[in-house]
Amino acid sequence: MVPDAVTRSAYKRYGDSSAVTDLKQFADRGHSLVFDSGWRSVADHVLVWLAANGVEAVAAGG
Length: 62
Description:
By secondary structure, the chain is an all-alpha fold. It has helices at 4-12, 39-52.
């Protein structure tokens, strides 16, 4: 797990950037997302965030 202070510090470094960023922390989720239980809820959140920021998902194989 990454300590909260480290996560917030990394996020703040983007403050003056033109990059579109957001900070969302998921309690009880490990660093190895693809191996952790609950990965689907995190992936769903990312898809919603991307859509809200004008990025459309591309279907696998498409």
